[in-house]
Amino acid sequence: MNTTKVNVVRWIKQEGDPLKLGEPIVELETEKVNYELDSPVAGVLLKIAVREPAEVEVGGLLGYIGDPGDTVPGA
Questions:
Q1: pLDDT at 15 over 70
Q2: How many CA atoms lie within 13 A of 46 on its CB side?
Q3: CA dist., res. 34 & res. 32, Å (int)
Q4: In sequence order, what are the residues at sequence separation of 6 or more whose Cβ sits closer than 8 angstroms to the Cβ of residue 11?
Q5: Nearest partner of 18 among 70, 75, 74, judged by Cα
Q6: 41-60 pLDDT, tens per residue?
Q7: What domains lie within the chain, and their CATH numbers?
């Protein structure tokens, strides 16, 4: 059985926080495990798209990371 959904448990970082590559930013939960998702890039957490508690598709959009002063698409 493949996991298709994850639960957003807790945001470790908040909007506007600087991020380092590989730094934990959000805690996620599946049926079998809780884990911290690391930032894929360095930058700033511009916007949290999915607040806890929420269920999302694996690989779905959780938030936007960019450079200071960047705008979020559709904002």
A1: yes
A2: 16
A3: 7
A4: 25, 26, 27, 48, 51, 52
A5: 70
A6: 999 999 999 999 999 999 99
A7: 5-66 (2.40.50.100)
